[in-house]
Amino acid sequence: MVTEATLVAAMPMASAFLAVVLFLLIWPDRKRPSGMPVLALMAAVSIWSFFYGLEILLPTLGEKLLMAKFQYLGIAFVAPAWCLSAARLTGYEHLFSRRGMAFLMVIPVMTVAAAFTNDFHHLLWREITVGDEPAPVLHFKYGPIFWVNNQYAWLLLMAGTVLIIRGAWAQYRLLTLRNTFMILTVLAPWAGNFIYVFRLGPIPYLDLTPCAFVLSGVVFVYGITRMNLTRIVPIAREHVLENFHEGLFVMSMEGQILDVNRTGLALLGCSNRDILGQPAEQALSRFPDLLAVALAHDGAPLRIQVPAFPESHFEASASTLSDRSGIPFGRIVVCRDITQQVEAEARLRQSEAIYRGYFEMSLVGMASTTPEKGVITVNDYLCTMLGYSAEELSRMTWADLTHPDDLEENLLQFNRILRGEIDALAMEKRYLRKDGGVVVAEISVRCVRRADGAVDHLLVMLHDVTQRKAAEEALRQSESKARYILNASRASIALFDLDLQVQDCNQVFARSFGMTVPEMINRSVHEIMSPEAMGRRLDVAAAALATGETQRGLDERDGIWYEYTLVPAKSAAGEITGLVLYADDVTEHQLLQQEKDALTVQYQQAQRMEAIGQLAGGVAHDFNNLLQVIQGYTQLAQQRHEIEPQTGMMLEQIANASEHAATLVGQLLAFSRRQVLQRRSIDLNKVAQDTVKMVERLIGADIRLDFTPSIEPVTVLADPALVGQVLMNLCVNARDAMPDGGSLHIETCLVTPDVSVVRAEGAAHSGGKFVRLDVTDTGTGMDVEVRQHIFEPFFTTKDVGHGTGLGLATVYGIVRQHDGFIQVDSTLGTGTTFHVYLPATEASVDAVSSPRAALAGGTETVLVVEDNDMVRTLAKVFLTEAGYKVIEAANGELALDLFDQKRDSIALVLLDVIMPGLSGRQVYEEIQRRRPGTPVLFVSGYHAEGTHTNFILDEGLTLLPKPYTMGDLLQNVRAMLQQTNT
Q1: What is the CB-side half-sphere exposure of residue 146 using CA atoms within 13 A?
Q2: Taking Cα atoms as reference points, which of 783, 761, 756, 753 lies closest to residue 606?
Q3: 742: alpha, beta or left? (left if phi > 0; alpha if psi -120 to 50)
Q4: How far apart are CA 197 and CA 205, in angstroms?
Q5: How far apart are CA 888 and CA 875, in angstroms?
Q6: Which residues pair with 181 in a beta bridge?
Q7: CB neighbour burial string for 904-919, b if at least 16 within 10 angstroms, e if fewer
Q8: Is the dihedral angle over the CA atoms 363, 368, 373, 375 positive or is it negative?
Q9: 461: which strand partners?
Q10: pLDDT at 945
Q11: pTM of model > 0.85
Q12: Is pLDDT at 909 greater than 90 in this prediction?
């Protein structure tokens, strides 16, 4: 018998069954965005409904209370599951993180725990009774936990409701009749709970809330499985509209902005708050172009300007939105960024212009032709090439333009294209110009075929190679000439590859290895040269290949010297491809260079000796003045009759020492070429013969001496005493080089040395004949280092105390002072030869004058002009002792003043040659100008390169060298005064 309780319980049981069915339906879609929340909702509803039905059916309070406890396994989790399902359905699942969902379950879990432990604390229910309804249900007096869970459930229901309403408003496009009904059905739990609370249902005591949740579940499941709402709503909103690359503006028919996607907001530069719900005239007031499109009727897209993107281009279009019945309910405006399209169009136009420019302005002839060989179009270059206008060419065929000799081959290839055997060809042919000339061209032909394979037209490119052909011919002729020049060159020329194999060479290079040019090609340097001859040649080649820099140098092979240049050969890309060798035979030049180097060394030696001579001359000049004073006063002291013998002996020693010092000074002056020369024409044979007699007494019996005089006259203009001194010093030097004896040979001869040698030696006599005096010994000889210093003063290889080092220096100075030069040949251990060259003269030999007898003093007045105070005082003493009157002058200016004052009383002028200020020569010339014929006796301590003393000898004047004795001075003074008086 079916009771009313059974009928009432059937409804929650049916809800439980339906919830289970929905659970099974949604299970395959559990991985969808709303799948799991809806599964949880259906599980909670089925538990709630099933145990609610059992509560109604079971008769006892205990049984009913147990079922009530199990109901809370569903009641506590229904609200959270429903809220999460609503969030997933409307696309707001991002509001609930995993931590947030765990937080949502805190109160439901606490409620379930309170339900099963209520007997101990009564915090969920305080009093429980069974009602007297036909289907008895439990009545509760609720505790605080119940109200916490109840308010929490209402809060979640409200939150889910807000999300559904907000999603529905945002997705107004989905507000169709069916979808609106579904959204209202989702909100059914509100209605079910409202009916139960206010007892408005047909069965007031029956709680229809789980049934309402089942109804919501039906909508959720339908939306997931059939309508795919979980994908349509969020994906359509987020992924289709929001991520759409074009700006979308949705407007109502009244012109109100209802929605704008993210791209649209970026274009407008504003937010949703600034534009949604605003009239288009207000919202788009800053965008007149876009506003015009939005308010206009549907039409073609229009170009618009967007101020925020001035360099971009946009296109806008509007269309009307209508429902299924065709009734318009809004408008949608699409704004597209067409910058790339505009730029592509611009590039296309530019490309077309470029290609058109290539065609029209190309430096090759271009044309298109028909299969019948007729001309369709040509460019200007082709017209210029052939001399025809474009119109004239359009009436011609290629056969008309082809050279008759090339026509057959041209037609043969052209027909192959027409038959489909080939699609392109390249060949060289000749064309006839309008003026009758011939053009040689390289042509490239490519055909364009139709779909059936037939030739539609042909594209032809013609490159004028007339000049190139002429250049190639000229190049062949040039190469022939270059080969001729290459073989005519006296230098060896060769081209090597990277492996140092000969790629090409001239005949000179091949002959240097005893081969012909063809035999040399492709031969390696290792084949044509011995390993001993390779030497550093491989290192030089490797350096040129490694660095890419030209290598130059000097090489010797089989006694022949080569000056080579090794140039890296490079390709057009700059890569080294080999080496080019230029080698010239410079053997003769090398020998001349060696000779030049030797002469250079000699010249540098002469310069060094000149510098040393200047120093020695300066020292000797000052020392001569000191010796003059020492010797003069010593002589005066010796003439005193009252001196004691011991004092006389000491004065004699002083006199001897000063004479020896004077000799040394004379040697320095000889080396420095500052001594006063008494030149005359002498026979060098006679001087040498006289000197040999004295040398025989010096050299000893263990040295054999012989003299070979020249059979030709050997006359020189020289000081015989100094020339004899040269020979004497050379012989003494030879004797010292032969301590164990040997042979000494002296020879004179007349020679004509090469001008270059004379110049290199720095001789004043630049050319002509020279008298050569050779002194050869068989002594110890000298090495190179010693030979470089032998003429330097104070340089000696003898032990201390056995030589002054002035012998050869004196020889050098005397020879140079006589405008000659000296050379030495010596080898260590084999002996030495000195070659003395003196300029020859054709003048007759001068007779030797006899010495003049000493003359007495006098009473005349003598003007003594001397810058050295001590020498001047000494001269005054000498003259005063002899009875002369003396007027002193320390310089030339004072001397002229005194001469002007007492010119009538001055009988003779004693004049120093070298003085500061006015020189002796200048003073002499002024005296002769003021009183011609005034006798002047010159005195000088050295010969200053002939500048101041040569004029004395040239003009026949008298020169008294320092240091002079009192007798020398008085004799010369008296002789000049007597000659003047006569």
Answers
A1: 16
A2: 761
A3: left
A4: 9
A5: 10
A6: none
A7: eebbbbbbbbbbeebb
A8: negative
A9: 366, 444
A10: 41
A11: no
A12: yes
Q: Which pLDDT does position 698 carry in this prediction?
A: 72
Asked whether residue 162 carries a pLDDT value surpassing 70, the answer given is yes
Structure tokens at 163: 């999300």
Cα-to-chain-centroid distance, residue 286: 57
Tell me the average pLDDT of the chain: 76
Please report which helix (H) or strand (E) contains residue 432, including its range.
strand 424-432
CA–CA separation, 658 vs 93, rounded Å? Answer: 132
List helix spans (H) across 700-818. Answer: 720-736, 755-761, 784-787, 807-817
Strand, helix or coil for residue 775? strand
- Tens of pLDDT along 571-616? 878 788 888 878 777 766 766 666 666 556 555 655 655 555 555 5
Q: Write phi, then psi, for 181 (nearest 5 degrees).
A: -60, -40
C-alpha–C-alpha distance, residues 967 and 620, integer Å: 23
Tokens of 510: 């091949």
Tally of CB atoms within 10 A around 733: 20
- Alpha carbon of residue 771 to chain centroid: 65
Helix (H/G/I), strand (E/B), else coil: 441: strand
Q: Which of 686, 722, 726 is nearest to 847 (CA)?
A: 686
Tokens of 217: 């579940």
Q: Chain centroid to CA 893: how far?
A: 70
CA distances 177 to 172, 182, 332, 778, Å, are: 12, 9, 22, 144
Structure tokens at 953: 């000898």
Would you give the end-to-end CA distance of the chain in angstroms? 203
Task: Identify the burial level of 243 via C-beta atoms within 10 angstroms of its C-beta, where 0-12 means exposed, 13-18 middle and 19 or more buried.
Answer: exposed
pLDDT score recorded for residue 936 = 92
pLDDT confidence of residue 355:
64
Asked if 35 contacts 224 with a C-beta cutoff of 8 angstroms, the reply is yes
Lowest mean pLDDT among 112-116, 143-147, 287-291, 689-693: 287-291
**Residues 385-409 pLDDT 10s:** 888 888 888 788 878 888 888 888 8
The C-alpha angle 821, 848, 691, rounded to 5 degrees, equals 50
Which residues are bridge partners to 455 per DSSP?
449
Rounded Cα gap, residues 824 and 836, in angstroms = 9
* 93-126 residues labelled b (16+ CB within 10 A) or e (exposed): beebeeeeeeebeebbebbbebbeebeeeebbbe
Rounded Cα distance between 804 and 815, Å, is: 19
- The pLDDT tens digits for 2-11 are 567 777 777 7
Give 314's strand partners: 304, 337
User: Does the pLDDT at position 204 exceed 60?
Assistant: yes
Query: Quick one: which of 936, 943, 948 has its CA closest to 961?
Result: 943
The torsion of the CA quartet 492, 493, 499, 503, rounded to 10 degrees, works out to -120
Percent of all residues in the chain with a pLDDT value above 70, rounded to a whole number: 72
Q: What is the pLDDT of residues 13-71, one digit of tens each?
A: 877 787 787 778 778 766 665 678 878 877 887 888 788 788 878 888 888 888 888 88
Can you list the alpha helix ranges (DSSP code H) found in 673-806? Answer: 684-699, 720-736, 755-761, 784-787
In the numeric block, which tokens belong to residue 45?
A: 């509803």
Separation between Cα atoms, residue 322 and residue 329, nearest integer Å = 6
Give the model's confidence band at 232: pLDDT under 50 very low, under 70 low, under 90 confident, else very high: very low
